[in-house]
Amino acid sequence: MNKRQIEQILNRADERCRAKGTRFTEKRQSILRALLKSPVPLSAYEIADAYRDTTGETIQAMSVYRMLDFLAENSLVHKLASANKFVACAHIACHHEHETPQFLICERCGAVKEVGIKGNVIKALQQGAANAGWQMLSPALELPCLCDRCAA
Ligand SMILES: [Zn+2]
Ligand SMILES: [Zn+2]
Ligand SMILES: [Zn+2]
């Protein structure tokens, strides 16, 4: 992603926060920028490192986690539960409703692609859990894949 695209997405994220009456502070912006710049998902510690490299200031992992929580609540970032890492949402600049995301994770290069899952697929997953007498808490799916570039 080039610089201009990143700035466009950050502007859009700012507008979205304003519309909700929340603040897209400089620090939250730096965290999201670090994720947008990275070709692979980052852990809170890796984000803290990137923050230090770009701003010259140290940030505690705890405050990175707090900011990630805020960004995740606002669908600006997503947590990959399997790796305990974070990715920027691929739809920040979009105008459509945010769908339930599914993450395709390249086993070779670590790239992640966010795609939406259809409602009937989520229902089928819920039904499968219900048939076993369990309750599904999250339909977040992380699928091991080979990306288009690595497959070529
Ligand atoms: Zn998303
Ligand atoms: Zn979109
Ligand atoms: Zn790949």
Quickly describe the structure.
By secondary structure, this protein is α+β, with helices and mostly antiparallel strands. The protein has helices spanning 3-20, 26-37, 44-55, 61-73, 119-131, 148-151; strands spanning 77-80, 85-88, 101-106, 112-116, 141-145. The strands form two sheets. Strands 4-3-5 form a three-stranded mixed β-sheet, with no helix packed on it. Strands 1-2 form a two-stranded antiparallel sheet.
Written description of the protein model:
- The structure is a single chain.
- With 152 residues, the protein is of the alpha+beta class.
- It has helices at 3-20, 26-37, 44-55, 61-73, 119-131, 148-151; strands at residues 77-80, 85-88, 101-106, 112-116, 141-145.
- The chain has a three-stranded mixed sheet with strand order 4-3-5, with no helix packed on it. A two-stranded antiparallel sheet has the order 1-2.
- A hairpin with a 4-residue loop joins strand 1 (77-80) and strand 2.
- Helix 2 (26-37) packs across helix 3 (44-55), helix 2 crosses helix 4 (61-73) and helix 3 (44-55) packs across helix 4.
- It is globular, with a radius of gyration of 17 Å.
- The mean pLDDT is 94.
- It binds zinc ion (3 copies).
- Residues 106, 108-109, 111, 147, 149-150 line the site of one zinc ion.
